[in-house]
């Protein structure tokens, strides 16, 4: 609860109030402790107090018991005892509900919370998909090509389309980006398919979350408490942790610098914080540390909730200046070492041993160390944490559905959309390329048929021309032979006539010496002889 402008969290055994200064909340914090020691109550009291200050809150509800913040708390014997213990009778402490919006990545127990593949980026997406270094580099190349070709990556089908496009055109990009192995692309496709089978594809789509919608106030001026139902999401640690980190990244990129303000613009509570760091590569750990360190100047406070303070890497833990340590249990030397580390991270109090105090804390008790007005760590105090003002525990599904539908962002995020993006563009391009290829193939086939027909026609024409030439030659030869025969007949006829005449004349000359018989014989013999001689001469 808020008292004198500060967040009254609890009181010491001697009745002193211990409070967190709102101006120091953007220095981040840690809530740690074993299961069942009261971390959830502490988280609720802080979230309610920030809401009362007009500061919007985001928190991950892993167990479902934070949803009760939408209803007023209920009195009971135990609650009345606690109210008396803290001297809250007659004060401004009262049970009441808080303005809240339920969110759910899977869209079942809250408004559908989405982002796009492009907004997630290759580094965080590789974390979700569980890619190795080479596969992560190929994913980075894919994002760059998509940017260069102005292809929007909205959902997983866009991602799959781009992967197939990259595989089909890998030779085209080899000179610029090096070898792109089909096996690596196939491995990424399998990882995308696994994500889709687990329901993770629901996280990617439109309308994407506008992080500024988290900065809403209720009608009474209190900050809206944005509750992410994480009961199912936490079963996929990579998606859960990457989603939380993505939100911090979005906040960092969206918000302007504000420096030191009287109160934060928003406060995030990340439950099961160890999931954010387990198996995270160094590149991702460096990014988390950078965001946590720099987001303070944007007026955002981040509180990590985990069982043991050592779950948070040193580089990040060094940025968590407001510490709330619930009870730890140490039964082994390793566990005792963790308790000592937790105690040494807090400013010592000479009145008690911090390590022993942490080991012996009861339910609802904590050792806390908050920054003072000068930004210096306060001395550790052992306190009992105040009770929350809203209802403890889960709510009925009907009540949850009512809150979801009555929330302001419902009309904006209730219905999904599928805008024109890489998938549709590449589909069109593929159809165009297919049509172009089919046209080119048809044109080539037509050209081949035309060439074949022209060749056949040319061959037939040549055959006809050759036949015509042969026929012409035959006719010419026949004409020549006919002329030759005619010539020969004429010559032979003339030769016969001439030879006969000459022969008879010769015969007469010869036969004159033999009388009348001699004349006849001489004429006939002479004619025959003349014809034979001329026939021999003109034979050819």
Please give a structural write-up.
The structure is a single chain. The chain is of the alpha/beta class and 540 residues long. It has three domains: 2-114 and 206-415, Rossmann fold; 122-192, no CATH class; 424-537, no CATH class. The chain is 51% helix and 11% strand. The protein is built from 17 helices and 13 strands. Strands 1, 2, 3, 4, 5, 6, 7, 8, 9, 10, 11, 12 and 13 form a 13-stranded mixed β-sheet that branches. A hairpin with a 5-residue loop joins β2 (6-11) and β3 (17-20). α5 packs antiparallel against α7. It starts with a strand and ends with a helix. The model is unreliable at 517-521 (pLDDT under 50).
Oligomerization state of this entry? single chain
**What is the radius of gyration computed over CA atoms, rounded to a whole number of angstroms?**
52 Å
What CATH calls the topology of the largest domain is Rossmann fold
State the order of secondary-structure elements, H for helix, E for strand: EEEEHEHEEHHHHHEHEHHEHEHHEEHHHH
Q: Number of folding domains?
A: 3
Residues in helix, %: 40-55%
Q: What portion of residues belong to β-strands? A: 5-15%
Low-confidence stretches: 517-521
Number of strands: 13
Provide mean pLDDT, rounded: 87
User: Main β-sheet, in a few words?
Assistant: 13 strands, mixed
The 3D shape can be described as rod-shaped
Q: Could you name the CATH homologous superfamily of the largest domain?
A: P-loop containing nucleotide triphosphate hydrolases
What is the number of helical segments per DSSP (H or I, 4+ residues)?
A: 17
* Amino-to-carboxy terminus distance: 145 Å
Please give the CATH architecture of the largest domain: 3-Layer(aba) Sandwich
Helix-strand category: alpha/beta
